[in-house]
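Why should sequence recovery work at all? Because a backbone constrains its sequence more than one might expect. Tight turns favour small or flexible residues, buried strands favour hydrophobic ones, and helices have their own preferences. The token representation captures these environments compactly. In the example below, the structure is given first.
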């Protein structure tokens, strides 16, 4: 019997156990396997950015509480970044909020903007924190499933299905493009249709754009750039994926003063502030020359191709991603059907860890035979993993 005669965990979180990333990373450590499960690089980002953090620490900048919205230097750098890459203009004082990574930005946005019973449309499969944050806010998630296109070996959004999912209870659409885990980059036409729908039905949009600089085919087009969307879009960015310092947990929100003010009201009771010295470093990182961002993309394109080719040779059906640093695969051709069982057994079979996609679905059957691999690793690590995986097909 638990105290008070009921379960200790809030019922809204009862369906969520330990995050799959923690479980699979622990499995990698325990078995000494190559970890292609959790999406973190195995090398640090630019040396000048790391040194900027060291300099801030030594100079005493950020060692105490930074300002609640984030240090002015970083807020100015975020606005300059949005103008430089997308032609979007934001006021650094009222339209930018620094967060403890994108995960807090998502949580604060949903806690701020949802009332119990509000419906949230999310593209399925979705990053696991989306479902948990919707639940904590008392919302109801309504998945719209991205489905594989056999002809193109990629995933596509059914815009009719999205439109049909909107009801009188729909409050917002939660987007992620480039999309984790499928690697889909929503096209300008798809985003324009979503924008038109949001304006027509008076919906908010929260858009997770942390992989904005990791686009290999197509282009990243911010939702806020479409007509009528600036005042109804919360855009989320992060330094972790762009600069390979995922442990720093520096993210940001941009939007209208009203939207950012609402998100800040929730965020201040989560971490309040975080990552003081790192904020100064990220401000410098956002001002790096174009060559850095282009080089990052080309480096990860090469890594994608190394792993994608290796997975195909090992017998997987590969959905080659247009963005992010994840590859989704179908294990059916290997004679497998259960992605969770496959991933749990993979370390013993060939010393590699991956993540089962079913954990990203409400419709578990839709993702049951799918497995995700991360390719943000050294070339030699990816080649070693590909060699190990060939054992699955007798190679």
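From this structural description, the recovered sequence reads:
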């Amino acid at each position: 019997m638990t105290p008070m005669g009921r379960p200790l965990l809030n019922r809204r979180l009862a369906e969520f156990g330990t995050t799959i990333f923690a479980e699979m990373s622990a499995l990698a450590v325990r078995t000494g396997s190559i970890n292609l499960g959790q999406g973190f690089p195995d090398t640090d980002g630019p040396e000048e950015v790391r040194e900027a953090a060291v300099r801030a620490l030594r100079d005493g900048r950020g060692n105490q509480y930074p300002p609640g919205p984030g240090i002015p230097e970083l807020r100015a750098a975020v606005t300059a970044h949005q103008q430089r890459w997308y032609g979007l203009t934001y006021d650094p004082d009222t339209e930018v909020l620094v967060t403890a990574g994108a995960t807090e930005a998502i949580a604060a946005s949903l806690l701020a903007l949802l009332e119990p019973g509000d419906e949230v449309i999310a593209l399925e499969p979705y990053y696991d924190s989306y479902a948990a944050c919707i639940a904590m806010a008392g919302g109801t998630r309504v998945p719209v499933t991205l489905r594989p296109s056999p002809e193109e070996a990629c995933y596509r959004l059914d815009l009719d299905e999205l439109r049909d999912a909107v009801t009188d209870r729909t409050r917002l659409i939660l987007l992620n493009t480039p999309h984790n885990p499928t690697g889909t980059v929503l096209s300008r036409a798809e985003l324009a249709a979503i924008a038109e729908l949001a304006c027509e039905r008076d919906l908010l949009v929260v858009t997770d754009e942390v992989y904005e600089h990791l686009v290999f085919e197509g282009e990243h087009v911010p939702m806020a750039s479409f007509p009528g969307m600036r005042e109804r879009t919360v855009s989320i960015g992060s330094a972790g994926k762009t600069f390979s310092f995922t442990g720093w947990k520096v993210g940001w929100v941009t939007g209208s003063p009203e939207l950012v003010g609402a998100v800040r009201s929730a965020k201040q009771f989560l971490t309040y502030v975080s990552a003081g010295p790192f904020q100064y470093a990220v401000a410098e990182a956002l001002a790096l020359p174009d060559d850095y961002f282009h080089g990052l993309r080309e480096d990860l394109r090469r890594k994608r191709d190394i792993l994608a080719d290796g997975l195909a040779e090992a017998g997987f059906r590969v959905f080659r991603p247009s963005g992010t640093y994840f590859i989704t695969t179908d294990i059916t051709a290997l004679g497998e059907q259960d992605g969770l069982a496959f991933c749990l057994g993979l370390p013993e079979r060939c010393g590699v860890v991956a993540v089962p996609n079913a954990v990203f679905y409400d419709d578990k059957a839709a993702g049951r035979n799918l497995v995700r691999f991360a390719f943000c690793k050294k070339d030699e690590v990816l080649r070693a993993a590909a060699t190990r995986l060939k054992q699955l097909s007798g190679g």
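A few observations help interpret the result. The chain is about 40% helix and 15% strand.
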